[in-house]
Amino acid sequence: MRRLAAALCLFLLAVLVGFSQEKKESVPPQANAQLVIPPEEAKRENPVKPTESSLAEGKKLFGYQCAMCHGEKGDGKSELAESMKLTLKDYTSPDALKDLTDGALFYIIEKGKGQMPSQEGRMSAHQKWILINYIRSFAKKSGDAPKPVAPPKPGL
Ligand code: HEC
Questions:
Q1: How far is the CA of 114 from the centre of ligand 1 (A)?
Q2: Angstrom distances, CA of residue 8 to CA of 17, 19, 56, 141
């Protein structure tokens, strides 16, 4: 009997150990809910200039891949957002992204965050930078949007 109990304990222990290891390996759907952006990623600079043509490209991409959640106008109002009960920022407000650098946005788009799907492998880096410029342009259209972090260039 004692042997059986000991065997049972061992078995349970093995299950527990196995379980905790499995938990570490498998990625639960909300794994990125608390996405931590490494400082070196946040420091990355956007190599793409928001020219008219790159913004037009960003608009197209955004329309296909992002607007169903973030809304055509970037205001976070969409049917999908409503049905999924997503809490989305209003990108037409200059305050929405003021605390996030382009590098941080890049990291979020790449890795995904909470309900935001990861774009890793689905999009080139160039496309992501273009999208970031486009997202920032929503606020610029509706008034003055201070570009975060990057200090104003002299003479501008
Ligand atoms: C399924 C809906 C969905 C789609 C599609 C989606 N997003 Fe998001 N996105 C979200 C949600 C939800 C958040 C907020 C995540 C959080 O903070 O938990 C978010 C956050 C972000 C953020 C971080 C800043 C912020 O608003 O908090 C950026 C940047 C972003 N999305 C860009 C994009 C881009 C670019 C695309 C298209 C390639 C896209 N998203 C597609 C749902 C979506």
A1: 9
A2: 14, 16, 65, 67
CA atoms within 13 A on the CB side of 140: 11
Here the CATH number for the domain that contains residue 78 is 1.10.760.10
Reading the block at residue 111, the tokens are 């890795």
Q: How far is the CA of 152 from the centre of ligand 1 (A)?
A: 27
Residue of minimum CA distance from atom 20 in ligand 1: 116
**97 lies in some domain:** yes
Whether the Cβ atoms of residue 134 and residue 59 lie closer than 8 Å to each other? yes
What is the whole-number distance in angstroms between the Cα of residue 9 and the centre of ligand 1? Answer: 46
Domain containing 67 equals 48-141
pLDDT, tens only, 14-56: 666 665 555 555 555 555 778 999 999 999 999 999 999 999 9
The alpha carbon of residue 141 and the mean position of all alpha carbons in its chain are separated, in whole angstroms, by 23
155 found inside a domain: no
- pTM (whole model) above 0.85: no
For residue 60, tell me if it sits in a domain. Answer: yes
For atom 6 of ligand 1, which residue has the closest CA? Answer: 66
